[in-house]
Amino acid sequence: GVSQFLRRVYALSEDMKSMSSGFSEADKKTRAAELSSAIQKLARAADSPVGSQNGKEFLAFAKKIDSTIDEFLSLLQDVPDEL
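Given the sequence above, the corresponding structure tokens read:
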């Protein structure tokens, strides 16, 4: 169920760390580490509303998780926006 999903999200943070180790730009590497840590914290925090069946609170965490992953994925793109 949802708890299993959150475990996978938590595990994703380790993949994010591995991927970011290949970044050559220090600022991207630092931001990726921050986002990876944020994913771990959000996944742990989102488990509480799942246990209490608080869908509204869980969805708030899910949106934060989604935007954090989106930001991380944007770090992987190295094509300029103007193209």
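The mean pLDDT is 92. Try to locate this feature in the token string yourself.
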